[in-house]
Amino acid sequence: MENEFINKWKSQVKKGTLSFIVLNAISKKELYGYELIEIIKKTTAIEIAEGTLYPLMNRLKKEGLATSKWVEQESGIPRKYYVLTEEGKSTLQHMRNYWEELELSIKKITNHGI
Amino acid sequence: MENEFINKWKSQVKKGTLSFIVLNAISKKELYGYELIEIIKKTTAIEIAEGTLYPLMNRLKKEGLATSKWVEQESGIPRKYYVLTEEGKSTLQHMRNYWEELELSIKKITNHGI
DNA sequence: AAAGAATACATTGCTATACTATGTGCTATT
DNA sequence: AATAGCACATAGTATAGCAATGTATTCTTT
Fold it and tell me: Is the pLDDT at B111 greater than 70, yes or no?
């Protein structure tokens, strides 16, 4: 049985991390919601609940970082694909810079002490 | 003027990150609250508000990861020093492992695509 | 000596976001 | 016919960072 603190902590770490991950993901290629969950789970072992992803994508749209478009399928339910806007791209760049700094900061503290 | 989204995002990234940073910091050496804020700001450029740190330290104590002790000063206000417990040490190790995985996951997505 | 800055603790109220639970409707499998 | 999977979505709850505010002592500046 996992420590309860650790589980809560992991959930907290995801706050902020998830939007970063999702923006990175759709920066390579248009993806739809369900696919995002699957693909992120497969490549990173990070699980995003559906109740987390859909509100998150709507926030990104509301903030002007992404747009979406419905794409009809030959068979099956239509999919909503997400596309990064120009503002989304430049914001993502800022986020990448900050993340690199953060990584370095953490490394400093974990490896060399403070 | 900085993007509003970025500022909110940075604040969200701190959720979880700060407890990790603080636990790492006191794992090297006993530190008191005000000192933690100063020292983390100096070495990592991450600013922790006082209204963030003190409740955070109390949570860590409540969870059994740290203890604290008052130390009187020859001159000046007494300081509350924080010490990592055994449980805190092992929890920190789990957190370090998870953080490494997270770093790798993010690297995968930012560098090589998904 | 008085005023202000710095040290050092702490709480309250606000806000943002992840998660569980739940719901809808279509398609494929058994 | 029933179940699992696909694909969207919302409501309610809990957590944690932050600004604002408060208390009290000590140091620095004028």
Answer: yes
